Amino acid sequence: MATHDIAVIPGDGIGPEVVDAALPLVEDAAAASGVTFETTRFEWGTEYYLDHGEMMPEDALDRLEGFDAIFLGAVGHPEVPDHVTLHGLLLPIRKGFDQYVCKRPNVLFEGIESPLRGYGSGDIDFVVYRENTEGEYADVGGREHRGLAHETAVQSALFTRRGTERIVRAAFEAATEREGHLTSITKSNAQAHSMVFWDDVVADVAREFPSVDVERLLVDAAAMDLIRRPHEFDVVVASNLFGDILTDIGAQITGSMGLAPSGNVHPSDEYPSMFEPVHGSAPDIVGRGVANPLATVLSWSLLFEDLGERRTANALWDAVVDQLAASSAPRTPDLGGSEGTEAVVSDLQSRL
Amino acid sequence: MATHDIAVIPGDGIGPEVVDAALPLVEDAAAASGVTFETTRFEWGTEYYLDHGEMMPEDALDRLEGFDAIFLGAVGHPEVPDHVTLHGLLLPIRKGFDQYVCKRPNVLFEGIESPLRGYGSGDIDFVVYRENTEGEYADVGGREHRGLAHETAVQSALFTRRGTERIVRAAFEAATEREGHLTSITKSNAQAHSMVFWDDVVADVAREFPSVDVERLLVDAAAMDLIRRPHEFDVVVASNLFGDILTDIGAQITGSMGLAPSGNVHPSDEYPSMFEPVHGSAPDIVGRGVANPLATVLSWSLLFEDLGERRTANALWDAVVDQLAASSAPRTPDLGGSEGTEAVVSDLQSRL
Ligand SMILES: CC(C)[C@H](C(=O)O)[C@@H](O)C(=O)O
Ligand SMILES: CC(C)[C@H](C(=O)O)[C@@H](O)C(=O)O
């Protein structure tokens, strides 16, 4: 069997803590299911920026391109503006490797209390397919007349047919493998240029998937409904910005940002996909050894699933599910516990 | 004392139901506090559109301009696209009368159960100042190459210094009259053209208000934090789109869209301000007599407050607060009751 080559970018803040802690566990899970992989570490991020004036070297994408997948810890630093750090590392990789599917499962696991009254384990289980390369995050716009009374800033959201069709199609495909229910998020009532176009594309692609039942929901109503009736969602497809907001709500209602995994997927072999926990670099808890490694472990699970290594993927996912369900298992403070990263990982090890 | 001239546009769906039911109550509250007002009804909306091909007559703004305030029920119809109905009535008034402050209080009233665990009466009390005339809802953009593989849609968010400064300043002023805490919502890490500009304006205006403590929060984090720690918010200032999303979350965590009032305020005498419940036309319950009139009554309260008629404003607000706190008072189905609009209004009447 071929060895998978994985690039690992631990990044900033708690990124290296969770990545380093999880790696031995991931290796064990792979070994136990007969999968071999090798990791190559890239020490890029804000430290690198402070030394070199850039978040990663100019040829970073060339160096990453040959890998089968990328694992990213976190990016962001309290002393460097986000539009420097993110635009210097995370976003160029998402865009450069055309990782147009940002896939974010939201599951309320057994043993986790949702902040929503009346919701218990298993009641929430949906996945968001977020467009990840264009839309409201397109680097199109500008600012004129700085500091003057008529100063004006423009930020243009860019939606292409190709870009929209492919994320919508990916979401429809996911729906056929789940409950067959797709919710498309729009704001057509106020953004008639972009969102009416989005609706049209959804209507076009829907014809290819007659078995999928499609609901259109305005982003403001969707934000409400994720609080009011999250159990009714199955697959959600949304633009870059809307998906960003709704997945954070999804993480919150399923208990903790510390449990939210994600994949930035380019669905062909042309480029590597990148997997990362949804949480950020969490400067407030850096160095204290209490960062929750579970989103990292779940993100590795998504990575192996994407590589077709279902057994490894399941072993990691199930270890997390088991641990959360066990009332005496160690937990980090964000989940109400008082244990550290290492204790959580060694407990997972015993559940492989 | 001068008579206030109020234009009333009942609009679509449950709009006329809640407007008509509430009006006698509003008249009584005004009379009891020595305030006189006259209403002029405008039967504009989707019915009008189906007859005339437009949501309101061409000279609508001229006809509304002389009024002291406008009360709007709801706009929207299941058979006519929102970008027709809203762009034909609601949005032209907001923009035409330069109603740049969309003010939306979010209060968890006694007697209302929040969907959030652990939150009880009084625990949530913040107000959102949403920019209401530009930003992501600017009608700037277009769509080319329709139906072709290279079709592209652009939706440009437009932020002007004047437009941004004035909403930010209004929010700072509100903060000085409340707890002195302002949260500014951005997405500067991904929208570097518009949102870094927004941050700069906030920093500029902040210098005029040294007593106000300012927090910057990314919109995705804010959506999470409204679920995780809503009690910590006081005044929130946000762009048109971000304010839209966050106020819907605010309505939901404080129990019901049926309780959320709003004002579209132009803060000088040049144009009338417009008040409306945040809920829409609710086609699913039209004609059943069960629409919740409370958001309408609270919106009238905001209207009188804006006209400087504090006693009338308080009488209406307090009647709602009283009713909600009374466990035996009638409630509409959205609040878990089984009574209708009329029963709720007559109970309010007894509490004036
Ligand atoms: C850090 C930021 C640019 C990023 C985004 O909005 O895409 C993050 O919020 C996420 O959701 O991955
Ligand atoms: C109907 C729609 C255009 C409107 C908006 O987004 O402004 C509504 O959602 C609101 O919040 O008042």
How would you describe this structure to a colleague?
2 copies of one chain form a homodimer. With 352 residues, chain A is an alpha/beta fold. Chain A has 2 domains: 1-100 and 257-352, Isopropylmalate Dehydrogenase (3-Layer(aba) Sandwich); 125-253, Isopropylmalate Dehydrogenase (3-Layer(aba) Sandwich), CATH 3.40.718. Chain A has 11 helices and 12 strands. In chain A, strands 2-1-3-12-11-4-5-10-8-9 form a 10-stranded mixed β-sheet, sandwiched between helices. In chain A, strands 6-7 form a two-stranded antiparallel sheet. In chain A, helix 1 runs parallel beside helix 11 and helix 7 (219-228) runs parallel beside helix 8. The longest helix of chain A is centred in the N-terminal third of the chain and has 18 residues, at 15-32. The model of chain A has no long low-confidence stretch (mean pLDDT 96). At the A-B interface, helix 4, strand 6, strand 7, helix 6 and helix 7 of A face helix 4, strand 6, strand 7, helix 6 and helix 7 of B. Strand 7 (152-160) of chain A pairs antiparallel with strand 7 (152-160) of chain B. One 3-isopropylmalic acid (IPM) is lined by residues 189-190, 220 of chain B. Chains A, B: Residues 328-352 are annotated as: Disordered.
